[in-house]
Write a structure and sequence with these properties.
By secondary structure, the protein is α+β, with helices and mostly antiparallel strands. The chain has seven helices and twelve strands.
Amino acid sequence: MHFCLTIHPPTRTRSYTHKMNYPNALNYPHAPNHYAPNHYVPNHHAPNHHTPNHHAPNHHAPNHHAPNHHTPNHHAPNHHTPNHHAPNPHAPQLTRDYLTDGYISYTFGPQNAEGYIARLFSVDAPSIQAIRQGDAFYAFNHPSYGIPPAVSLYGRDAWLLDFAVIRSIGSVVPQQLWSPQGQGDRRRYVDQAQLRMPIFFINRDGSLGVPVMDAAAGNMQLRGVHLPPQLADKSTVKLRISWPCYNLPEQQVQLRDQTPQRNPISFERFVKHVGSRVRQYLLDCESVPVQPNNWTVGHGNITFDEVMLIGLVQVSEGSWTPILQLMRRVVMERLERNVVFPS
């Protein structure tokens, strides 16, 4: 029998939104302050300054013997100098709410999600430049594995990073962030790998997610016909699911058809394969004895027809973990792990 140690997660009420201002990094110049006085505009109503009055010096007249008249007075504002202290209404508001509201954070925990996202872009965590547009989080950083940007925002290329959890659906399934056991394998397949951006299953009507039962039956209408660029050069991938309290082998998914040309399969066929593997995984869980808990799988507990596929996250070279969400709420319990919110 498998024993599952659980802890109650911390309440997700703190906000980590930082209205950071990175004008140089984002190439969003600040608008000049047009309301500042310009001390360099000559007074055209003043008497002819070319005939100096030697008895009453004109302090407003230019000194023609002075060097370069175009040298600006650095102590006076200039209409042509941007006011870097004025807020720019066109600059995006950077956020870190993906660490508290996003599916990746809900799946792996905020600390693991922060480290994982930093590896996606090969930068340190504070360097992530992300914004929220509606329910989606986009990053301006270039992914370590080059794929075309999803959109252009504020004149910059942006890549889809995550979605805010749709809480009205139900509880997100917490999972361990899988990693090879050996230090050498971890360095080769995770640390030195170019991890690819997450893949989300978006329906043609704009809604997010597909029930596992519908995906396995091929009953879906997804946006996108072809495999996303993250998978286009692969022939197989491994699905690594770590449902709470269960430890079952990975599942393999074929990305090529059975023709002699071994053509890439369609995106919907790929999602059908993923749905079939997740369904089989949950059916296998029913025969595994575990200590009863809120995530127990089987009759009278959680069954595969209550689970939705939200997307996929690459956890190592060749391995992906599906983001799963129940279509009902459960009392949140997690596998024992370090859950540390960033300060």
